[in-house]
Amino acid sequence: MTRFTPAELEAARDRLVPDVVADGLKVLFCGINPGLMTAATGHHFARPGNRFWPVLHLSGFTPRLMKPSEQGELLAHGLGITNVVARATARADELSAEEYREGGRVLAAKVERLRPAWLAVVGVTAYRAAFADRGAAMGPQQRTIGSTRVWVLPNPSGLNAHWTAVTMAEEFARLRTAAEEPPAGRVTGDPSP
């Protein structure tokens, strides 16, 4: 992994990181906003200690542990990555309430355009702020965006000590199982007698 000086990381502040998206994904994972390491590398969840990539593998979403630099391979698994707020900061607490609200509006429009089966927001606090849903808890939400169902997952940041990689993987695996089920009302298989 490339080492960055503090000045190089600071230079990445406010930088935008391209989404990893396509139409009709099974799951579009949504982070809070890019950190400085992510902005410096251009790879989502790039900070050492962030547990997104290990948890993605432990939960069965990917067949092997992927590196942030391999993020483009997620598309082949029907997965993608975006953020609630696009601009990079050192910490999520640098974002304003208005940035979260505007991020929620932009995210909803993106989801309506891309039509993933599931939007998975990693971080209940970010979800609550972006969608003005103060009562939201982990797991599937009542809210849909168009035909897209919404699930809130734990934030994989190393700062989130309430969740271990194992307990996070269990929650991610619940979403994986739901994402593998056909949508309600859709029949799979050959309908002929």
Task: Write a concise synopsis of the structure shown.
The chain is of the alpha/beta class and 193 residues long. It is built from six helices and five strands, in the order H-E-H-H-E-H-E-H-E-E-H.
Walk me through what this model shows.
With 193 residues, the protein is α/β, with parallel strands linked by helices. The chain has a single domain, classed as Uracil-DNA glycosylase-like domain (Uracil-DNA Glycosylase, subunit E, 3-Layer(aba) Sandwich). Helix content is 32%, strand content 15%. It has six helices and five strands. Strands 2-1-3-5-4 form a five-stranded mixed β-sheet, sandwiched between helices. β4 and β5 form a beta hairpin. α3 packs across α6 and α4 crosses α5. The termini are far apart. The C terminus is likely disordered.
Q: CATH superfamily name? A: Uracil-DNA glycosylase-like domain
Strand content: 5-15%
Low-pLDDT residue intervals, each spanning 5 or more residues? 185-193
> What about the largest sheet?
5 strands, mixed
From the coordinates shown, what is the CATH architecture?
A: 3-Layer(aba) Sandwich
H/E topology pattern = HEHHEHEHEEH
Global morphology: globular
The count of β-strands is: 5
Number of helices: 6
How large, in whole angstroms, is the Cα Rg? 17 Å
Number of discrete domains: 1
Per the CATH scheme, the topology name is Uracil-DNA Glycosylase, subunit E
Please identify the structural class as seen in this structure.
Answer: alpha/beta
| Fraction in helix | 25-40%
CATH class: Alpha Beta
Could you tell me how far the N terminus lies from the C terminus, measured between alpha carbons in angstroms? Answer: 57 Å
Compute the average pLDDT.
Answer: 91
Provide the spatial order of strands within the biggest beta sheet.
2-1-3-5-4
